[in-house]
Amino acid sequence: MTIRRRDFLTLAGAATLSASLPRLARGADNAGVYDLERFGNARILHITDTHAQLRPVFFREPSVNLGVGPMQGNPPHLVGRAFLDRFGIRPDSADAYAFTCVEFEKAAGRFGKLGGFAHLKTLIDRLRSEVSSGRSLLLDGGDLWQGTGLANTMQGADMVDAANLLGIEAMTGHWEFTYGETVLRANLERFKGEFLAQNVYLTEEAAFNDAKAFDPASGRVFKPSIIKEIGGHRVAIIGQAFPYVPIAHPKRFTPDWKFGIRDEELQKLVDAHRNNDKVDAVILLSHNGMDVDLKLASRVTGIDVILGGHTHDAVPQPIAVTNAAGVTLVTNAGSNGKFLAVLDLELGKGKVKDVRYRLLPVFSELLRPDPAMQALIDKIREPQAALLNDKVGVADRLLYRRGNFSGSMDQLICDALLGELNVEIALSPGFRWGTTALAGQPLTMEDVLAQTAVTYPETYVQTMTGGQIKDVLEDICDNLFNADPYYQQGGDMVRVGGLHYTCTPAESVGKRISDLKLDNGRKLEAGKRYKVAGWASVNEQTGAPIWDVVVRHLRSGKPPNRSPPGVTLKGVEGNPGIAGHV
Amino acid sequence: MNTMENDFSATRRLILKGAGALTLIGLGIVPLDVTKALAAANDKYPEEAFKQKSDADVIKTLYGKTAEPSEKVKMDAPEIAENGAVVPVSVTTTLADVTSIAFLVSENPNVLIAKYNIPAGTLPSVANRIKMAKTSNVTVLVEAGGKLYSAAKEVKVTVGGCGG
Q1: 3-state class of A268 per DSSP?
Q2: Nearest-CA neighbor of A409 among A384, A375, A443?
Q3: Is A160 helix (H, G, I), strand (E, B) or coil?
Q4: Is residue A556 situated within a structural domain?
Q5: Ig-like SoxY domain: from which residue to which, for each copy (chain B) (predicted)?
Q6: Cα–Cα–Cα angle for A405, A408, A414, nearest 5°?
Q7: Could you tell me the residue range of the domain that residue A33 belongs to?
Q8: Does B78 sit within 8 Å of A312, measured CB to CB?
Q9: Shortest distance, CA B75 to any CA of chain A (angstroms)
């Protein structure tokens, strides 16, 4: 990997934003990439959606991230050049590589991988040592324990060790819940920080049966918030778990718990911290997703900053949202360990006087890995190293997942389902995690598991009518493009193999999907039955795990299918949430 | 990624929460003599209203007047149902002299879910679970001081499918 240090050194300093002042110009050409201008009296560091990627990764940001209605053209629904223009990032820069898909392959060779916990540790320690002791906090927004074969086998236990060494003081959750209550509690037992979730409650039945809860009176399963003292000031950190866990995942993992956004309960909690605890700042550590957070910020008052995650949007500047009582800043800090958010606060009595926010790309080549963290990662990985390093194929082209409708990695998975399970149509979930492989790169078992490692990986084959298939596509599409963010779940569209369709995102549910056709050009008939394969079903299935199916396909030596994805979009002309084709 | 089963049984499953002195007259399986007894003790069992297929027809049949949206009707329902077979929907109101509360699901085969008569001196607070066939608007009607008020919210019933 040829690395030109100068490329990094001219990296524009990081976005700076103040709630009260106009944005300061970017550009600290002479400063080191991570030399931050000192500001304020409290520093909060935020990582989110690392998806257990302990080692540095390639991760291509999306070229399709459409917003519809009032969300169209607004962050986070900007990609490519439109993104660079909006945030004043120079094309061809290291920032452009980290934040967008522009010339990804070329830039990947130049700037290398991002993230890695040993590299993150070095950067975090440095940024914490710059402020006096007791003046910083490290928060994690969830999706810390899932996303790799290692984490899946160890049920997140590896990530608890890494989190403890990294020094995470509070976190919330999403995929953490898919290990089930027993494993979740065992992991939390070992976690040195706090697990916060104001929006997880016992079901009535579980409450009646005296199931375990943090607060049996309210039914809250977890501690909703904590107050941290920072340099004589009091900061409330409230946790907001992913609101739709039992809908997006099999309900069997969380039978006793109910979720939801619950902004009324949140408002009460914020008010109590403000009025009774007399805190100086309120931070929401959220796994809602950015559109949901933007709406929530307009409804719930008294929150200074929402540190957001879930939708994997790397947004360089906070978005200021005005509500009945003031302004709330909303952030989203990307995914896969690519970014570290630095929130510097100037705290005063009962209020935040001023703010600086930077979303720093974690360029692995520029950071010396922390030896203790590297040793821990090596130790955790060692027993499985042989299995994970097993070479199962080669990336015949750039393989990535992220995008609203398709990704070459998911096309590969759909091809595997079609070929190995002998069906007409393949469906693969629109997850937003999953790393990127460069063309020509060997694919290992670890790479395959980085796309597939879930606790419900079983494949299925079933017959569905054309009408049912259309209903499923409509339903999932509405989870993505409902005009009201509270009805969105934050994932991408289900990927299809063997099927072609037209999508009109701005339409309403039932009218978005049209012109469904099979690969052979025949129209999908509403009443006819088709053989369909898929994986990660919310219903219990018994087929082989998807990673085995993908490996079988890769080893079969079948020629790669490079036909373009079968999705045609309508009504997205001029939408800056798409660059190029689907 | 599997389709949800849309088996919609004729009998609604209603669960009353709390020990309020509520009168449930919405159960479609009440035997005839009990119906008669109820009718005698209270106002008439709204048999016709339970047969209606639209919000407007239910409101017309049940109350014979139009409902006016009110911020004093506080309705609590999920945006997306965790289980379409048991969707928790509750209502409280600060309106005075409440005499009845009714729940409507526009897209269900029979729109009227239940009507609760609220005796004087009872806290106007009702929580129940509703079986929903599919995504629908859910409306709560509160009859108070001879007038009719409402609140509504869309509740999505989804096949699931995840994300981030």
Answers
A1: helix
A2: A443
A3: helix
A4: yes
A5: 60-162
A6: 80
A7: 5-377
A8: no
A9: 12
B123 and B130 Cβ atoms separated by less than 8 Å: no
Integer Cα distance of A400 and A260 in angstroms: 31
Q: Chain A, 257-276: which have a CB under 8 Å from a chain B CB?
A: 258-261, 264
Relative to beta strand A305-308, strand A326-332 is: parallel
Question: How many Cα atoms occupy the beta-carbon half-sphere of A66 within 13 Å?
Answer: 28
- Cα distance between residue A493 and residue A473, in whole Å: 8
Which residues from chain B sit within 8 angstroms of residue A431, using beta carbons? Answer: 162-164
pLDDT at site A8? 58
Q: Is residue A577 part of a domain?
A: no
Yes or no, beta carbons of A309 and B163 under 8 Å apart:
no
Cβ separation B163–A260 shorter than 8 A = no
- Residue of B3, B160, B162 lying closest to A431 (CB–CB): B162
- The confidence score (pLDDT) of residue A489 equals 86
For the beta sheet containing A513-518, the strands, ordered from the edge strand earlier in sequence to the opposite edge, are A513-518, A499-503, A567-569
Q: What is the count of structural domains for chain A?
A: 2
End-to-end CA distance of chain A: 30
B162, two tokens: 């995840």
Question: For residue A412, what is the domain's CATH number?
Answer: 3.90.780.10
Interface of A with B in 499-558 (CB under 8 A): 509, 534, 536-539
Token digits of residue B88: 């928790």
Query: Is A49 within 8 Å of B164 (Cβ atoms)?
Result: yes
Q: Which two tokens stand for residue B81?
A: 């149902």
Q: What is the residue type of A264? A: E
Residue B161 to residue A430, Cβ atoms within 8 A? yes
Which of A416, A424, A426 lies closest to A546 in space, CA to CA?
A: A416
In this structure, are A438 and A521 located in the same domain? yes
Distance set, CA A457 to CA A451, A473, A541, A547 (Å)? 11, 20, 9, 8
Residue B159 with chain A: CB contacts under 8 Å: 471-472, 475-476, 538
Residue linked to tokens 């300093």:
A13
In a domain, A576, yes or no: no
CATH-assigned architecture of domain B23-155: Sandwich (2.60)
Q: Which residues of chain A have pLDDT under 50?
A: 1-6, 9-31
3-state class (DSSP) for residue A37: coil
Q: Is residue A338 part of a domain?
A: yes
Do A415 and A275 share a structural domain? no
**Model ipTM over 0.95:** no
Q: In angstroms, rounded to a whole number, what is the distance separating the alpha carbons of residues A75 and A239?
A: 23
| Residue A580, pLDDT score | 84
Q: Which residue has the tokens 């003790």?
A: B41
CB contact A421 to B (< 8 Å): no
Helices (H), A156-289: 157-166, 180-190, 204-208, 245-248, 263-275
Which helix (H) or strand (E) is A413 found in, with range?
A: helix A408-421
Cβ–Cβ < 8 Å for A366, A33: yes
**H helix or E strand, kind and range, residue A442:** strand A442-444
Q: What is the dihedral of CA B87, B92, B97, B98, to 10 degrees?
A: 0
B65 to A357, B59, B60, B119: CA distances (angstroms): 55, 7, 6, 21
Residues in CB range of A217: below 8 A, 6 or more apart: none
Residues in chain A closer than 8 A to B155 (CB atoms): none
Q: Are residues A440 and A546 in the same domain?
A: yes
Stretch 118-137 of chain B: residues touching chain A, C-beta under 8 Å: 135
| Residues lower than pLDDT 70 in chain B | 1-43, 160-164
Q: What is the pLDDT of residue A459?
A: 97
Q: Where are the domains of chain B?
A: 23-155
Contact call for B1 and A538, based on CB within 8 A: yes
Alpha helices in A256-384 (DSSP H): 263-275, 290-299, 371-381
